[in-house]
Amino acid sequence: xxxxxxxxxxxxxxxxxxxxxxxxxxxxxxxxxxxxxxxxxxxxxxxxxxxxxxxxxxxxxxxxxxxxxxxxxxxxxxxxxxxxxxxxxxxxxxxxxxxxxxxxxxxxxxxxxxxxxxxxxxxxxxxxxxxxxxxxxxxxxxxxxxxxxxxxxxxxxxxxxxxxxxxxxxxxxxxxxxxxxxxxxxxxxxxxxxxxxxxxxxxxxxxxxxxxxxxxxxxxxxxxxxxxxxxxxxxxxxxxxxxxxxxxxxxxxxxxxxxxxxxxxxxxxxxxxxxxxxxxxxxxxxxxxxxxxxxxxxxxxxxxxxxxxxxxxxxxxxxxxxxxxxxxxxxxxxxxxxxxxxxxxxxxxxxxxxxxxxxxxxxxxxxxxxxxxxxxxxxxxxxx
Length: 384
What we know:
There is one protein chain. The protein has helices at residues 2-15, 40-56, 60-67, 83-92, 98-105, 164-169, 186-193, 207-220, 223-228, 241-244, 261-266, 278-282, 284-297, 318-332, 342-347, and strands at residues 74-77, 96-97, 131-133, 155-158, 175-179, 197-203, 231-234, 249-255, 299-309, 336-338, 362-364, 375-382. The strands form 2 sheets. Strands 5, 6, 7, 8, 9, 10, 11 and 12 form an 8-stranded mixed beta sheet that branches. It has a 4-stranded antiparallel beta sheet with strand order 2-3-1-4. The chain starts with a helix and ends with a strand. It has 15 helices and 12 strands. With 384 residues, it is of the alpha/beta class. Helix 13 (284-297) packs across helix 14 (318-332). The chain is 37% helix and 16% strand. S-adenosyl-L-methionine binds at residues 181-187, 204, 237, 255. Keywords: Methyltransferase, Mitochondrion, RNA-binding, rRNA processing, S-adenosyl-L-methionine, Transferase, Transit peptide. It comes from Phocoena sinus. The active site is at residue 310. It is found in: Mitochondrion.
């Protein structure tokens, strides 16, 4: 009898409006393996709330809402396309070339009729880069890039802050260049746009990501240019690069794997906050130190390295830089000097919001009026 009554109650509840059933009596849905109870995006936000509220204090609520809001993009003009026409079309959208605008306004003015002293060589930005953004507070979107009359795409849409590490690297004509963690390819493309690369090695451990990099190069760079710049795409373990090709490169970009903070808040796919990737996430700073050390070992004495992440975490940013410099001094007797990028921050502060208190390097923090980043970058010179 009791069983019949129980079955009748269950049937009645199934037929009843679910919303009228008290919460404690509702049937609880079983979670499938493919539907985690706590999505990785939620775990990421919980992690950021705990750590970044301490790291950034009163700034965190503003950064938080910006990270959760739509990201702004920049349009990197493809110099291998009809760049003058593309630039004119972007200007008609009321976008501006933030790079050349900043460099023009940042040139020293002569005093008392005297020629202004040139800035130090270490202040030089990588040349020939054109990237358009909309003004602060303007949330307009760029139309998708299209194939131009010269058979390559007109421009590349990217977080404009991602161009800053390439600008800071300060390429000079004839440089041999290594992009140690190159995929998906935006920064590699920007390195080629400078026209300075005598040789460019673009590496990514993941063969699938290296495949994406190849697609970007084929879509934006003509074959003869790829040959002339001797672009070499590899899928080696970047941690061993110092052993494979030590003391070779003039400029090295080390854009390491990180917690990719904005991606981790918006995408479940390939999210490093998935429970199955907890150990991988905890080991990130060690991996980052190994990659930066390899990049510095691959650099000639007197050459430059830029380390970058798209994370806000000082554990992945300043601490990695300081730890790597100490490691190289102790184990290899190599001295590394950190460049002061204060001038660089001032140059681009009209476009980006910078965190004012980095120990070393610079950090672009998301801001609703200029929702780029996060992007951390630090420039170093290998002295010995």
